[in-house]
Amino acid sequence: MIREEKGGSVSYSHRLVRIEEPIMRVPTLAIHLDRGVNDGFKVNTQSHLLPVLATSVKVELNKEFAENGLAEKMTNKSRHHAFLLQMIANKLGCQPDQICDFELQACDTQPSIVAGAAKEFIFSGRLDNLCMSFCSLKALIDATSSDSDLENESGVRMVALFDHEEVGSNSAQGAGSPAMLDALSQITYSFTSDSKMLTKAIQRSFFVSADMAHALHPNYMDKNEESHQPKLHGGLVIKHNANQRYATNAVTSFIFREIAVKHNLPIQDFVVRNDMPCGSTIGPILASGVGIRTVDVGAPQLSMHSIREMCAVDDVKHSYEHFKAFFHEFSQLDTKISVDT
């Protein structure tokens, strides 16, 4: 949040900032000082994850910092380190004392890369869930780029991207908020003022909850149920869970699988081992909160939730093609389906 003064009046603006160069690091303890670390190290999130920004000696010797007198001006008045404030201000093109507040997150600064001996992998931070976000958005754009794409479309094609999925979705802009229902209401009432139409629209809608899936790990093959071992390059994974950690059912999985069959796209299935806990997605949150038929899917990946994840190049292509085919095919396929109630 930046304070700006123009013509004697004060206004405030919210600005996005990203510092590309690595300015902090969380160093690990040398194995010499903790010989048992490989026997079962557990991170203490309070003590072990404090990043190192700079040493106090170098901060004092830094010319720009000293010339601006920031140490004396801000150290006792700010909740944040003056050196960090100066770096943010430089990136925003403002003065440090114009910064009212901020929220920053540390992330890996290494760029994503296509790698592997056969250039078959993508190594990147935040593949979960930027990969599915990218594929779905590109598919929507390419599925609506010409007038002919929508000639026989009876519904509305859309993509919904939410914040805070990894921390529970309970925020003003998360999947647990009214954002989805509000968007559906506004879209529906732009076509009609009939108050009953929203309910009908929800009943006819279909939600593809696209979050990344766990690929079979070559070093931990016993972590997968024997008959459900999604593999890299194997296409999108349909995720099932009897306890509704995923919102897939027989009808919704059939619809998504049928589109794959028609377009000759690979498709896989995942069910977690019975003796292991199951992760979840925003699928059950939206399915229960809005009442839309839902299928949970995702591209297979390794190292999920690590600072640097990996997936297969082929699966990005498969995901994009599957989502694009879904946008084109769903409305007509849905008219052919009868569900016994």
TrEMBL record:
UniProt signal peptide: none
GO terms assigned for molecular function: aminopeptidase activity; metallopeptidase activity; zinc ion binding
Pfam families reported in the protein's UniProt record: Peptidase_M18
Keywords attached to this entry: Aminopeptidase, Hydrolase, Metal-binding, Metalloprotease, Protease, Zinc
GO biological-process terms attached to the record: proteolysis
UniProt record similarity statement: Belongs to the peptidase M18 family.
Name listed for the protein in its UniProt record: Aspartyl aminopeptidase
UniProt source species: Gossypium stocksii
